[in-house]
Design a protein that fits this description.
The chain is of the alpha/beta class and 337 residues long. It has 9 helices and 14 strands. The chain has a domain of 192 residues: Rossmann fold (3-Layer(aba) Sandwich). The strands form 3 sheets. An 8-stranded mixed beta sheet has the order 1-5-4-3-6-7-14-13, with helices on both faces. Strands 2-12-9-8 form a 4-stranded mixed beta sheet. One of its GO terms (molecular function) is methyltransferase activity.
């Protein structure tokens, strides 16, 4: 397969010299993109901000800390599934080829899959530039024969891969139940874009959190140590730094609740008093008790997720769960795209 250093028009060129075997492609959204998205979200009713804004360098570190909390079961449960079934997954995905990963984040899960798959090329895609670079360099040390094409991009919108040639039959990995951060129609659209990326006959290995008791879900998103609260409020700190905002972090409280009817955990930042905040020169008024909706995390049953995937052109091939059926990992094959 011809692996070329090409990106979408207008993106920055590849950077070499980071570490042997690593090339870095920077298609990170511009400050103007961030400004426009934030201002539109705060002007909406109700106010909302995208969860992708969580992942600056500090936010990525905080999320890594969340994954180690006793209340946060998804990461350790998904890792257990990968450890138990990694060889079977590799048989389905195909060894020695190109592996894409959406939202690479921490390298814990991908190391398991890389060891089983032994791909020729690994393309991690993540919006957090510093975290992505550090992860790619760490992986290069552990897998010196692996070509790593780290791509800093927002995978929630269309983007170009840094590869060219025959796209059919590629493999992709989308861990962490990040698919749950999208509204169902948005999730279907994202899956359709992934289907195009991997081509007919390509496969996607995707982690999906399962529906379960309210107490378990709400504890996972509102831990006793307050790490998730710090993660949520760090979004405001990022806006203070990057958009010259003047949020008082102590005037906003972290809230997490499970909406059983919609099958999702919602995260909010609640204004503790009436206040006015300036962001990028624009003023926004908050009533006491008003919230900024910062994240949804949809939970699925297996049949429901398979129905969603089928609408995006995927055929379910295999699903693995843990003994307590907290979490699931699905292997999907592209039938049409």
């Amino acid at each position: 397969m011809n692996i070329a250093a090409t990106l979408a028009t207008g993106s920055r060129p590849p950077r070499s010299g980071i570490a042997p075997g690593v090339r870095f492609f920077d298609a990170h959204p511009t400050p103007d993109d961030l400004r426009a998205e934030v201002l539109a979200g705060l002007a909406a009713s109700p106010k909302r901000l995208s969860p992708k804004l969580f992942y600056d360098a500090r936010g990525s570190r905080l999320f890594d800390a969340i994954t180690e909390l006793p209340e946060y079961y998804p990461t350790r449960t998904e890792i257990g599934i990968l450890c138990d079934h990694g060889e079977e997954m590799a048989d389905l995905l195909g060894r020695g080829r190109v592996l894409l990963e959406l939202g690479s984040g921490s390298s814990l899960k991908i190391r398991i899959l890389l060891a089983a798959l032994e791909p020729e090329v690994y393309v991690p895609i993540d919006i957090s530039r510093d975290h992505l670079r550090a992860s790619a360099e760490s992986l290069a040390e552990h897998f010196p024969a692996l070509a790593i094409h780290a791509t800093c991009a927002d995978y929630s919108v269309p983007f170009e891969l840094p590869i060219e040639g025959d796209r059919e039959g590629l493999a992709a990995f989308f861990p962490g139940s990040s698919i749950g951060n999208f509204e169902p129609e948005e999730a279907r659209a994202l899956l359709q874009r992934v289907a195009v990326l991997v081509g007919i006959g390509g496969r996607l290995l995707v982690g999906v959190d399962l529906r379960k008791e309210r107490a378990v879900l709400e504890a996972a998103y509102d831990d006793a140590q307050g790490v998730t609260a710090a993660f949520n409020r760090n979004l405001l700190e990022r806006l203070n730094r990057e958009l010259e905002a003047d949020f008082d972090l102590d005037a906003f409280a972290h809230r997490a609740r499970y909406d059983a009817a919609l099958g999702r955990v919602e995260m909010h930042l609640e204004s503790l008093r009436e206040q006015t905040v300036t962001v990028a020169g624009q003023r926004f008024v908050f009533a006491a008790g008003e919230t900024i909706h910062t994240e949804n995390s949809y939970k699925y049953d297996i049949a429901g997720f398979h129905q969603l995937a089928a609408g995006a052109g995927f055929v379910p091939e295999r699903v693995w769960t843990d003994p307590h059926r907290l979490f699931s990992v699905h292997c999907l094959r592209v039938e049409a795209c």
